[in-house]
């Protein structure tokens, strides 16, 4: 629970979470979402999907819901089931025309029995999959207009768009039925994965990866650009381009999940382009996602960042194309349009003019998407609201990044101040410990010295004989000093006073030490000698101890002074 350890651990965990959430595959997984937002992802999404799918199918009575295919997709609120078609009867044959997407625009005008028979033959020859998807936060189209738009998408005709067999919606979400391709999507090809395996096990850590040739990259990229240009010309943005929504059939690209935009669900690459304020238009989003597709097809692995930093192992012409979409400068200044990308030299050099060789002379094979005026206006308003919400989210992300940078700077400065304060505290503590140890040692020495001094001052322990001996010694030494003064010239008064004080102090110190040695026990005298000669005693404490000893000795000598023991000395002054 140390604050420095908690701060360090918090930074490490934040870096780990950022790394996980920057990976679209891990960020879209249920464990990651439950960790970040446990309240919103605690319920069972599968049971709700089964209930809604049964309610939608019960109203028509054309399909039978089969077993679930598991979490083969990346969306948590999108579920996949096997489905089979019931034999049509005369009562429901008229309704099958409205909801059937395998019929073409010309076939809708035919009889109901013929259309139902063709739909039954198509479902018998291929495996169908039912997909239930809940509405997203960008669902701005009301239910009435949404039904008409889904009807138009069921009748959509384009060689590069996978047709819908059936579409139905309620207040909770939308149900669609389309053909299931056993070879999987483009992402399955690049990761060499089995389509029916769980999404996280297929793409989280694939056993192998395979990059496409430059010709394949150019061919598939050109077809994707053409179908995107077609949709935008009809006023319908795609917005959900990634390798999991692309299938390849005989070198012909087909896009999936064409209905996702009107359902308001977020894009696969939204965590990436939400970091760039210039990428908020519907066309710019499709261009940005197309750059990620090109990179993944050419390199064999997806990008783990929102921008590309260094591109290697590819021709220079492809490198220039990728940098025009995914570089930091391009994301700041603006991305090229779809028409500008289609006119790039890379596609002219590596891609032939036509790849999909289906005959287009038949009226049923020509691209076709018819939307009513109300539907176009509803889609236009939904586009504006979606772009505004994206811009608000981009502003909040920018502000959050700014706050994080400021916090990092403040935390770094605070850490510096804390480290300096900690170093000062450690230095003070070490200094206090040293002073404490010295005081303890000096305290023990001072106590022993005071004990020795106390033995001198206590008159009960000093015999009169010892005091007389000390006085006689002092008297003799005084007379000897007086004789020496006769031989030397008389000093000046100041010098005489200072020398007299110094000699008196030295004499008293000397005789006091002798008296202590004579009057104290042998052990005490030896301890005093050792303590006085110990190098650990400081100069201040020595002076205080000596001053105390001199004072006590001076008092004793004054009290016991005998004037009659002095000898008369003649002077020549």
Description:
The protein is α+β, with helices and mostly antiparallel strands and 573 residues long. The chain has a domain of 315 residues: Transferase(Phosphotransferase) domain 1 (Transferase(Phosphotransferase), domain 1), CATH 1.10.510.10. Helices cover 58% and strands 7% of the residues. The strands form 2 sheets. The chain has a 5-stranded antiparallel sheet, with helices on both faces. It has a two-stranded antiparallel sheet with strand order 6-7. The chain is elongated, with a radius of gyration of 50 Å.
Number of helices: 22
> At the fourth CATH level, what is the homologous superfamily of the domain at 44-87 and 126-358 and 365-402?
Transferase(Phosphotransferase) domain 1
- Order of helical and strand elements: HHHHEEHHEHEEHHHEEHHHHHHHHHHHH
Q: Radius of gyration from the CA trace?
A: 50 Å
Distance between the termini: 87 Å
CATH architecture of the domain at 44-87 and 126-358 and 365-402: Orthogonal Bundle
Q: Runs with pLDDT <50, length 5+?
A: 90-124, 455-464, 481-499, 519-538
Major pleated sheet: 5 strands, antiparallel
Work out the helicity level: 55-70%
- What shape does the CA trace take? elongated
β-strand amount:
5-15%
Strand order of the largest sheet: 1-2-3-5-4
Count of individual beta strands: 7
Structural class computed from helices and strand pairing: alpha+beta
Keywords: Coiled coil, Cytoplasm
Pfam families: PK_Tyr_Ser-Thr
Region (Disordered): 408-442, 481-548
Domain Protein kinase: 94-371
């Amino acid at each position: 629970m140390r604050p420095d350890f908690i701060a360090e651990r918090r930074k490490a965990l934040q870096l780990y979470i950022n790394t996980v959430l920057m990976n679209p595959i891990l960020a879209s997984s249920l464990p990651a979402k439950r960790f970040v937002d446990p309240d919103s992802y605690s319920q069972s999404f599968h049971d709700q999907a089964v209930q809604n799918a049964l309610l939608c199918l019960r109203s028509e009575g054309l399909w039978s819901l089969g077993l679930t295919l598991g979490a083969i997709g990346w969306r948590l609120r999108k579920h996949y089931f096997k489905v089979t078609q019931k034999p049509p009867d005369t009562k429901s044959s008229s309704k099958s025309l409205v909801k059937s997407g395998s019929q073409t625009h010309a076939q809708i005008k035919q009889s109901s029995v013929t259309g139902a028979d063709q739909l039954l033959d198509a479902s018998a020859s291929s495996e169908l999959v039912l997909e239930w998807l809940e509405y997203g936060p960008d669902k701005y189209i009301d239910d009435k207009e949404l039904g008409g738009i889904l009807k138009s998408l069921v009748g959509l005709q384009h060689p590069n768009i996978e047709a819908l067999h059936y579409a139905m919606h309620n207040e909770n979400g939308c149900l669609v039925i389309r053909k299931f391709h056993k070879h999987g999507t483009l992402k399955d090809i690049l990761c060499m994965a089995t389509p029916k395996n769980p999404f996280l096990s297929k793409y989280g850590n694939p056993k192998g990866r395979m990059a496409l040739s430059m010709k394949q990259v150019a061919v598939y990229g050109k077809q994707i650009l053409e179908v995107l240009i077609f949709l935008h010309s009809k006023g319908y943005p795609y917005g959900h381009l990634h390798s999991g929504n692309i299938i390849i059939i005989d070198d012909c690209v087909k896009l999936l999940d064409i209905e996702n935009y009107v359902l308001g669900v977020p894009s696969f690459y939204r965590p990436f382009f939400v970091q760039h304020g210039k990428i908020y238009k519907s066309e710019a989003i499709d261009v940005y996602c197309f750059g990620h597709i090109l990179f993944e097809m050419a390199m064999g692995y997806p990008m783990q960042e929102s921008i590309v930093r260094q591109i290697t192992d590819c021709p220079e012409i492809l490198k220039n194309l990728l940098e025009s979409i995914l570089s930091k400068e391009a994301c700041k200044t603006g991305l090229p349009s779809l028409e500008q990308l289609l006119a790039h030299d890379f596609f002219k050099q590596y891609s032939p003019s036509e790849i999909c060789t289906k005959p287009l002379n038949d009226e049923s094979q020509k691209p076709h998407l018819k939307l009513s005026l109300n539907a176009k206006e509803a889609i236009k308003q939904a586009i504006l609201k979606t772009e505004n919400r994206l811009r608000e989210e981009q502003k909040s992300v920018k502000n959050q990044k700014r706050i994080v940078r400021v916090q990092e700077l403040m935390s770094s400065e605070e850490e510096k101040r804390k480290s300096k304060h900690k170093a000062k505290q450690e230095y003070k503590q070490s200094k206090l410990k040293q002073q404490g140890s010295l005081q303890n040692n000096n305290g023990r020495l001072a106590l022993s010295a005071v004990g020795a001094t106390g033995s001198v001052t206590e008159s009960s322990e000093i015999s009169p004989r010892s005091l007389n001996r000390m006085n006689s010694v002092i008297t003799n030494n005084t007379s000897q000093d007086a004789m020496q003064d006769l031989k030397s010239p008389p000093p000046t008064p100041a010098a005489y006073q200072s020398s007299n004080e110094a000699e008196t102090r030295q004499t008293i110190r000397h005789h006091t030490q002798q008296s202590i040695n004579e009057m104290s026990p042998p052990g005490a005298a030896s301890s005093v000698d050792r303590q006085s000669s110990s190098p650990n005693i400081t100069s201040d404490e020595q002076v205080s101890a000596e001053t105390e000893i001199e004072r006590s000795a001076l008092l004793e000598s004054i009290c016991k002074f005998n004037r009659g023991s002095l000898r008369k000395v003649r002077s020549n002054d």
